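Tip: read the tokens left to right.
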């Protein structure tokens, strides 16, 4: 994770660093969370079959084909098992070089009675055509692959799809296209919207994706730049634009350290009745091998329940399973909730005050200013503002989104605002908690520009991505504000100054918190 913001702070508040706390070490053997007593995660059954592999060319509706590796249960390494089996599209990505590793992951399910496909998107690997990630064409191809697997002679007709990152995006996007034989999905580190989650953070282009574009889909360096506003190009690549179609059972695997956590939480909140959310102390990727690894049991239980119609295979005890993160390890660990934010969560408001304090009281009206950073380097002290609480008298558990309601003016005709929240220890070391960004001309909507008149004060509600994080007593909550946050956003704001209104009738920070009680 990365940061943004300044310092005209109280003497006790040092400028926060970009350090992120290391995830806690796993407390269990073989990946089952030790303090999470839920049969879903401890589910398991032994392997029954060998794995048979073959390369297949799956025809799609326009006459092209998608290259896949098919994995089938076998009575021996060369003899397919008799009977029919449910199917899983295990990964649908542009990463042909990972096909063997994906196949190893799929084999766990094949050995337990599932067909599986690992597929290379159109224009990647051995698949013909032009690669356009998450495009309508790619979604149609994925739909056709699901239906092909459903009609395979060895198939029961019940199909699921799962995948991480690119594969998680693909999984969610094909689900909102509603293939008739797709019964359930498991997306990990997926999106709700390709524009907001990845390409234009708050309307500001994200350079961290540029190397990926150049390596995987070079044509997008031109096409994405041609669509700086949210239009039909992005709606066609969006889950959010079709949330009403996300109706099948969905098990979302989310990491509180992952760059797509905002999208995963929003998907759950859009469809809380059929989406289950598991959020752990994980970075980008499957939880396997990371702290508090949940193992494979829950995934198998999910597929056995929905694809094998096995009522003995449990679902998660509650719709939200979340690990509370902390920089110090003083954490209450795993929790299960009926909803997110949880029952009992409440909103509290802090005021940004003159002199760099965050306070429950507004204080007198004032303002603070910082210079715009136009370089792709960390901001200097005069290019940030920092606001800090006093040392907390008791633990604070952030459990949801945060909104900064800024009253802001710009000396130029546009500007960027980048926010970061930090946990500052008594010795001055800081851990980044979460962040959010917004371009001033996008303050009303991403679909059109709102003019920015130099010197005019505008209300800007900046969405700060969700977290589940405990700040211990004695630590401070710190907010940094600036115009840059490399590499999450480009430093493209025009040179000048940004002024933030403070105190009464000024800017506020609205947090969602849980009542603590020491862990």
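Filled-in amino acids:
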């Amino acid at each position: 994770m990365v940061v943004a913001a300044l310092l005209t702070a109280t003497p006790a508040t040092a400028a926060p660093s970009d350090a992120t706390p290391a995830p806690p070490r796993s407390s269990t053997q073989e990946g089952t969370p030790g303090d999470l007593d839920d049969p879903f995660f401890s589910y398991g059954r032994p392997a029954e079959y060998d794995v048979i592999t073959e390369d297949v060319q799956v025809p799609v509706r326009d006459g092209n084909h998608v290259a896949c590796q098919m994995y089938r249960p076998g009575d021996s390494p060369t003899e397919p098992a008799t009977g029919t089996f449910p199917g899983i599209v295990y990964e649908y990505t542009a990463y042909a070089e990972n096909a063997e590793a994906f196949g190893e992951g799929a084999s766990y399910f094949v050995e337990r009675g599932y067909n599986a496909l690992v597929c290379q998107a159109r224009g990647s690997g051995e698949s013909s055509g032009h690669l356009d990630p998450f495009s309508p064409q790619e979604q149609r191809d994925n739909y056709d692959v699901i239906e092909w697997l459903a009609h395979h002679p060895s198939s029961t007709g019940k199909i699921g799809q799962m995948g991480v990152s690119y594969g998680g995006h693909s999984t969610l996007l094909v689900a909102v296209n509603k293939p008739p034989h797709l019964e359930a999905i498991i997306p990990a580190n997926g999106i709700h919207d390709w524009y907001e989650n990845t390409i234009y953070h708050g309307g500001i282009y994200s350079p961290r994706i540029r190397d990926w574009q150049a390596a995987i889909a070079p044509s997008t360096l031109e096409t994405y730049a041609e669509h700086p506003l949210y239009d039909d190009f992005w709606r066609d690549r969006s889950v959010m634009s079709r949330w009403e179609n996300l109706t099948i059972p969905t098990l979302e695997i989310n990491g509180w350290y992952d760059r797509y956590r905002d999208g995963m939480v929003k998907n759950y909140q859009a469809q809380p009745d059929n989406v289950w959310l598991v959020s752990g102390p994980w970075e980008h990727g499957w939880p396997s091998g990371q702290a508090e690894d949940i193992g494979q049991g829950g995934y198998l239980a999910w597929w056995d329940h929905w694809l094998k119609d096995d009522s003995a295979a449990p679902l998660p005890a509650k719709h939200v399973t979340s690990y509370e993160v902390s920089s110090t390890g003083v954490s209450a660990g795993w929790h299960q909730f009926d909803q997110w934010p949880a029952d009992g969560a409440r909103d509290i408001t802090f005021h940004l005050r003159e002199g760099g304090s965050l306070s429950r009281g507004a204080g007198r009206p004032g303002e603070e200013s910082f210079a715009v950073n136009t370089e792709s380097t960390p901001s200097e002290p005069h290019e940030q503002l920092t606001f800090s609480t006093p040392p907390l008298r008791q633990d604070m558990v952030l459990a949801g989104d945060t909104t900064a309601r800024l009253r802001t003016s710009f000396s130029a005709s546009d500007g960027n605002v980048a926010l970061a929240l930090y946990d500052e220890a008594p010795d001055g070391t800081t851990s980044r908690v979460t962040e959010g960004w917004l371009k001033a001309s996008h303050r009303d909507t991403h679909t059109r520009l709102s003019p920015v008149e130099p010197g005019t004060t505008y209300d800007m509600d900046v969405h700060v991505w969700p977290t589940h994080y405990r700040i211990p007593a004695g630590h401070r909550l710190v907010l940094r504000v600036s115009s840059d946050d490399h590499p999450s956003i480009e430093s493209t704001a025009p040179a000048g100054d940004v002024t933030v209104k403070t105190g009464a009738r000024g800017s506020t920070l609205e947090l969602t918190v849980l009542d603590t009680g020491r862990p």
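Residues 56 and 378 are 49 Å apart (CA to CA). Residues 346-514 form a domain with the Jelly Rolls fold (CATH 2.60.120.260).
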